[in-house]
Structures are given as C-alpha cells and as structure tokens.
Amino acid sequence: MEEEELQQIQANVSLAIDQLGPLSDVEFGLNPESVEWVEGFIERQRARPGFDPERIDGLVGVLGSFLGACIAAATGGRWRKSDDDTWGVLLPDGSTAFPFTKVRKQFRGGVEDGESIAGFYRVAVGFIATGKLREACGGGAGPDAT
C-alpha cells in the first residue's frame, strides 16, 4: 500500500510540473523559484470568486506532493509515513516536514495569516534540515515542521 501511495505522490509531482510549468514565468522544477511561484498560485486560487477552502483536497494532494519533492530534493530527505499515517519528508536531522499540512494551511489562511509555503520551504531547507534550528534552540530533539 505504501508503495502505491509513493507512486501517487510521484505522479502528483509530475502533474504539477507538467501543468504548472507552462503557466509559470520561472524555470519550473524542484527549486525555490517554483515554490515561490506555487505560493502565488495558491493565493490566486484563494482570490477566485466561489473559492471554497473545504473543496481543495485534489489541489492539496498535487501541490503538497510537489512541495515535499522540492524539500526532499534540496535536503536529501525522503518521503516517510508517520505513526498517524500522515506523509511527510524525513529530513537529514531526523525531523519531519509535513508539506500537505502546510499547503492546506495556506489555502485556508493565506499568507496574510502567516501561512507561506515558500517560508516553510526556506525554514525546512535552511534551518531544520541543516540542524541550525536545533543549535539555536540549544540542542534536543528535532522539531516536526508543519
């Protein structure tokens, strides 16, 4: 079952690149510029008339897969299913980033409520995965990012 779910995540990543790449104005792929563009895409979707944040499961699946793949590519992380059956990206420091949760939060609250997938990406890649956040907090167990 997990193998099928991982295949679906990869299919979602391919779908995001194939469908969103031609719409973007960046070299679209598993990179920070694409994450920034997707953040704007989410905000544009939120601004559409009739947008319903409760009817976004498909978009959350595709964009969460893409965000997780970007984080994994930048950190050397890998997909892992948590004890509560939630998929996340296991980072080199042992913590887990949960991209689907973050995408859903941005769809619901938007960047005006501090829900930025680009900020999430930067923190996961630049601070959590490298251990810099742990060092700044005085050591201890790695946080789980959401």
Give me a quick take on this structure:
This protein is mainly alpha-helical. The chain contains six helices and three strands.
Can you tell me the residue ranges where pLDDT is under 50 for at least 5 consecutive residues?
Answer: none
**CATH architecture descriptor text:** Up-down Bundle
Strand percent estimate: 5-15%
| Large-scale geometry | globular
State mean pLDDT (0 to 100 scale).
92
Distance between the termini: 24 Å
Instruction: Specify Rg, calculated over alpha carbons.
Output: 15 Å
Estimate nothing, just give the exact number of structural domains. 1
- Continuous helix count: 6
Q: Report strand order across the widest sheet.
A: 1-2-3
CATH-derived topology: Four Helix Bundle (Hemerythrin (Met), subunit A)
Organism: Nonomuraea deserti
Protein name: DUF3806 domain-containing protein
Characterise this structure.
The protein is mostly helical and 146 residues long. The chain has one domain (2-136): Four Helix Bundle (Hemerythrin (Met), subunit A), CATH 1.20.120. Helix content is 55%, strand content 7%. It has six helices and three strands, in the order H-H-H-E-E-E-H-H-H. It has helices spanning 2-20, 32-46, 57-75, 99-109, 117-128, 132-136, and strands at 78-81, 87-90, 96-97. It has a three-stranded antiparallel β-sheet with strand order 1-2-3, with helices on one face. A hairpin with a 5-residue loop joins strand 2 (87-90) and strand 3 (96-97). Helix 1 packs across helix 3 (57-75), helix 2 packs parallel to helix 4 (99-109) and helix 3 crosses helix 4. The chain is globular. The protein starts with a helix and ends in a 10-residue tail after the last helix.
